[in-house]
Each structure stands twice: as structure tokens, then as C-alpha cells.
Amino acid sequence: MPGSGYTPEEITRNFVSLVMMKYHEVLFFLGLIKAPGHELQSPKLQEAAEAIDQLEALKAKTQGNLTAEEHHALEHILTELRLSYLKVAKEWQSKKEGESQGEKKIEKPFETDPEKRKFFKSYG
Length: 124
What we know:
Layout: H1 8-29, H2 45-62, H3 68-107, H4 114-117
């Protein structure tokens, strides 16, 4: 970039570093990596989607100004993050559905099910 004081290699390195920082941020929000000294967190899908959207905005705003290396890095990371997001969202939804079905079984115990209750005698 003329007049910035940076060489083209430094600009590419800084751009890729920025993209990698957002990449790790999304992985953290998806619960796939943990912060140093902390346990893995539950997925924060809304925050992950916003960070992916920010990378999409960066792609749109820099279109036509990226080197081949920068373009490839951004495309590769966006693809990987979209796939990771879908996988985590699907697993999270399945887990939540499994938990809610477990709760339904607890809410409706065997003795209170009218269809099954008719087979039990009352001794009281």
C-alpha cells in the first residue's frame, strides 16, 4: 500500500493474522477451543455467526484488492468456519432435543399416563 510504510509482504502477513484472529474467535464461540486457563464453553452460536458475518464483510469490502495468498486464506477460513458452524449447530440442536425429550419423560411419569394407568389396581 503506497505511503503506508509497510511492505506488501508485511501487509499480507498482517491481513492473514487478522483473519486468523477472527478464525480463533469463531472457534472459541463454537466451543471448539478454550481460552488459556479456562474450560471449554458451551457453543455461543449467535456470537459465532456474527464473527463469521464480520469476515464476510471483510471479504466484500476487500474484493479486488487482495493478493492471491490473502484471497485463498480468507476463502479457506470462511469455508471451514461455515462447515464448523453447521456441524456444531446441528449437534447442539440434537443435544437440546434429547434433553427436552428426557424432560418430557420426567414430566409424564409412567403412573400418570392414562393409557398405562388402567392396568394398575388401586390398593388404597
